[in-house]
Amino acid sequence: MAKHVAVLMGGFSSERPVSLSSGKACADAIESLGHRVTRLDVGRDVAERLAEITPDVAFNALHGPFGEDGTIQGILEYLQIPYTHSGVLASALAMHKERAKIVAKAAGVPVAEARVLHRLDAAPAHVLSPPYVIKPVAEGSSFGVLIVREDQSKPPQELYSNDWPYGDTVMVERYVHGRELTCAVMGNVALDVCEIVPEGHAFYDYDSKYAPGGSHHVVPAEVPKKVARRIQEYSLAAHKAMGCRGVSRSDFRYDDRFGEGGELIWLEVNTQPGMTSTSLVPDIARAAGHSFEDLIGWMVEDASCAR
């Protein structure tokens, strides 16, 4: 049955451009499936606008703070509009890297050692032995991520910047050598594992994720079957432990420099995976036999409220 779907996109986080791209692709796909679509560039008046247009479903194509941290989810719950992706608690939990790691570890998922502190306390001297990674504790799309190499005598001095835009709390996490692997979960089913190969970048940064040619995806990843199974098991465990629903994506590092039994570390779960032409989840779903339109249509049908 045809539905009126409001596609929420844009917003006011650092990830606005990605969200607009995701939203357009998703809105086009939803229209191709015969649904009526209202494209909503989200502002502070989003609750009033949603109350005016009264959609049957909200397709959440927002990224970053406000869009995937439980905030817009709370508004949609209050308005009782069924929406895609995870609910309030899972969204807020997954967005906060420190708390997500605690929950994942308790569920038996391997994580790297880390410390969480004020950015100014991470700036004067190394708080972990290099190499390590500094991440804003609640940002997405690799914004603000800094890699500290073995040969660096002190932490990045960007941490002192007066115009640092990513919040004052950062996570300092042991750097895990190895390959970038990811796995999507769709309705409590773990799909194929994908390897991300950045082109000309030291790690899977913003440009690798969203610029054409920034990376290429190998699906299924060319890893031992037992490693792929572990990644699928850990992805599903994290998805369930956080209370995710719909589609999520877990990211990993796999260090196989010294053999197949190398270190496998879970990095994070993304409750609002990108849906652009270069995004991972559409590629992973396609390998499982789901076209982009099938994937988006399934997400529309899967939309719900907590109550």
From TrEMBL:
<comment type="similarity">
    <text>Belongs to the D-alanine--D-alanine ligase family.</text>
</comment>
<keyword id="KW-0436">Ligase</keyword>
<dbReference type="InterPro" id="IPR000291">
    <property type="entry name" value="D-Ala_lig_Van_CS"/>
</dbReference>
<dbReference type="InterPro" id="IPR011127">
    <property type="entry name" value="Dala_Dala_lig_N"/>
</dbReference>
<keyword id="KW-0961">Cell wall biogenesis/degradation</keyword>
<keyword id="KW-0133">Cell shape</keyword>
<dbReference type="InterPro" id="IPR011095">
    <property type="entry name" value="Dala_Dala_lig_C"/>
</dbReference>
<dbReference type="InterPro" id="IPR016185">
    <property type="entry name" value="PreATP-grasp_dom_sf"/>
</dbReference>
<keyword id="KW-0067">ATP-binding</keyword>
<dbReference type="Pfam" id="PF01820">
    <property type="entry name" value="Dala_Dala_lig_N"/>
</dbReference>
<dbReference type="Pfam" id="PF07478">
    <property type="entry name" value="Dala_Dala_lig_C"/>
</dbReference>
<dbReference type="InterPro" id="IPR005905">
    <property type="entry name" value="D_ala_D_ala"/>
</dbReference>
<dbReference type="GO" id="GO:0016874">
    <property type="term" value="F:ligase activity"/>
</dbReference>
<keyword id="KW-0573">Peptidoglycan synthesis</keyword>
<comment type="pathway">
    <text>Cell wall biogenesis; peptidoglycan biosynthesis.</text>
</comment>
<keyword id="KW-0547">Nucleotide-binding</keyword>
<keyword id="KW-0963">Cytoplasm</keyword>
<protein>
    <recommendedName>
        <fullName>D-alanine--D-alanine ligase</fullName>
        <ecNumber>6.3.2.4</ecNumber>
    </recommendedName>
</protein>
<dbReference type="InterPro" id="IPR013815">
    <property type="entry name" value="ATP_grasp_subdomain_1"/>
</dbReference>
<dbReference type="InterPro" id="IPR011761">
    <property type="entry name" value="ATP-grasp"/>
</dbReference>
<comment type="function">
    <text>Cell wall formation.</text>
</comment>
<feature type="domain" description="ATP-grasp">
    <location>
        <begin position="101"/>
        <end position="301"/>
    </location>
</feature>
